[in-house]
Amino acid sequence: MRKETKCIQAGYTPGNGDPRMIPIIQSTTFRYDSSEAMGKLFDLEAEGYFYTRLQNPTNDMVAAKIAALEGGTAAMLTSSGQAASFFAVFNIAGEGDHVISSSTIYGGTFNLFNVTMRRMGVDFTFVDPDCSAEELEAAFRPNTKAVFGETIANPALIVLDIEKFADAAHAHGVPLIIDNTFATPINCRPFEWGADIVTHSTTKYMDGHDTSVGGCIVDSGNFDWMAHKEKFPGLCTPDESYHGITYAEKFGKEGAFITKCTAQLMRDLGAIQAPMNAFFLNLGLESLDVRMKRHVENAQKVAEFLEKNEKVAWVNYPGLPGNKYYDRAKKYMPEGTCGVISFGIRGGRAAAEEFMKHLNVAIIATHVADAHTCILHPANSTHKQLTDEELTAGGVGPDLIRLSVGIENVDDIIDDLAQALAEV
Q: What gap in Å lies between CA 418 and CA 163, rounded to an integer?
């Protein structure tokens, strides 16, 4: 099936007389006729469900749809995108291990890695996403277990050279983990460019309607864990906390990563997505292809309008021919990138604050990547504690405005921006 059809039909095929839509299995537990039958589930010798903290049928059907869209072999839903990023890394890296990450990843993920996971004993090296192959090579250590990056950085909108990072990771026998939230599998499938694991904040474009926080991890099924078993004992040696199972042997490279993530991390940490949220997520997925086309079309027109407006000092959008990442975006995302734009207004912080007061269509909100046009002035909200000098050093200048272009009529969006700019 092509991606448009997968958005509608993948993950769940109803039988004769079955519900047309994915059913919501809103139950914590599941009944069995015998202890022996349940025991086979606990030993991972049979398929089924016994407690929603680990797995739930609704979640698994939606995860299967996302796996099909990404071209992966297995997937799992999590309670948030943060949980997905944490599980994806912590599944293979623990105390005494090292991970390489792009330095321009989403701030929440950066803090997760640089603060919280360091407290767990995992060390991180952050590299410029535009570093040379030699600089990237120099970041590796004997205890490096993974490389992490974002298809399109949030909010810097840097397009990652996926092949460069994949080649470096594979040369050292470790997987490349890519957060594909902004591009979605509609505009980019990182597995086709060498990535091994993909994560998503499904809260964004996949849900698309501000209803449900969630995340997802997808395994490509391509990384051969047993070929590098000395690096990944958690996958390649018996797990004494789960009946001595060796995941890579029992489930192969197609299923080992997600099975361990479920049987071990989800069991212990319980960051499961609620079945009702998974149901809402599925509704969003059904229109994902249609919406992403509209997001990209609208954002391109808005970016072109802003670029020509004399009140606007600069515009950052990979779809603009003059953008630094235009050619790279065309390579990895020939059908478009996403709907998020950043720009600056002449006059700095004061001008940006005045502009924000006059918006009517664009909603001032911390969220991005949904059907509504959302806008944020970080210097006056999420980054308000920083001085102008600190903002500039961090790449989020006092004039920067982040605009997430929705799927409304684009002329209404442009008219709204134009009248607000006229007030500056």
A: 40
